[in-house]
Write a structure and sequence with these properties.
Elements lengths: L2 H10 L4 H33 L9 H25 L27 E4 L2 H10 L1 H4 L18 E6 L2 E10 L2 E10 L5 E5 L10 E2 H7 L4 E4 L9 E5 L2 E6 L5 E5 L4 E4 L7 H11 L1 E5 L4 E4 L2 E2 L17 E7 L2 E8 L12 H10 L4 E5 L7 E3 L2 E2 L10 E2 L1 E5 L10
Helix pairs in contact: 2-3
Length: about 400
Amino acid sequence: MNTEQNSSLASSLPGSPAAAEAESRRGMLVSTLLFLLILLVSVLWMIFNIHPDSSVRKGSQVKEAADLTGRSEALLNNLKSEALSDIVYIRKIYKIPEDASVSPLPDSTRFGETTDPVVVQRVIDSAAELLGGQSTVWNSSIRIYPGSVIQYYCDDSILCVVWKEAVGNTVCTFSEVKIADGSQLRRALAGGSYSSSIQLKASDMARSVNSVVAINGDFYAFRQVGVVVYKRELFRFSPSVLDTCFFTSSGDMLFAHAGELTTAEATKQLIADNDVLFSTSFGPILVEDGEIYTTVSYPVGEVFSYFARSAIGMTDDLHYLLMVTSSENSPQYIDGMYADTAARVMHDKGCVKAYELDGGQTAVIIFNGSPANGIVYGAERTMSDILYFSSAIPEEARG
């Protein structure tokens, strides 16, 4: 056998550099062909399943079209991620269907609690890709309320940190939440539908929908004023006395001041133009466009009295801060604060938008199925609704 034959034989042997290179090329070719096949199937699927519609749609039609489009885009992205994993990294996208009655069950191994700020910082560092360069409210210099723990949850779709701080003469329980997709911010109504006579504890509702963290809503069933949107439908239009917070499918918070909305038709157009999924009607607005909003008078929430407060705010895209106040059963503290103090606290924590939810005994943050704060009068009350944040990763997709 001559030298040339020896060289040819060696290059064909398993494990040789030439064989490895040939195998790599074959792998890339297979991955590329698979990707093109997936792309072709996906395009054909969308052509035959997503049809153009008239400019005027009912809420259910808009929901179905948006949900279908979003889920198909996520599916295509994730198929590409799988097919091209040997060539390039593509972050997977997970969305929760709008019509899902429950969210994916969070991974119980991802929950934790500690008193060590270093541990929390490590959790935050592990979520660097999810944060995408955004800074966190939580920082190691925060002095947590004596005797309390810091709780957390983190997976590829959600980061949540819960802690307590003494602020003036009350104790604030905060929950910072960063999510990957707007579908992870959701609302649950007791009984599952608008105007249900059923009322439930927030913890029961939070567990029933598999939330990571939840906060009380506006207790819409307690009063007959305000603007109520649920699943893109306008159910109540009495806008003259309360500020409204609209939540969009992209996870944004939009405000309408009391009396600003003048007709139901214009409000329905606002809902359609901004893809509003639901609203809360309590208030007042606390922070708007990065500035503290001063309330001169307001008909609900005892804004000028010491009252247990509950609020939700945004610090950045898909980045939220929840807050409730209480005495934590300590004689050193009181349960509440003025509304303008709550506005200042949310603003100082970095919120560019913030809105007050129902307070008093209703004010509660539920983390991992249990209240994270001391509750006024010592026990949860039943209520009509919660806002909650969920993991978007299905159990079968966990690594």
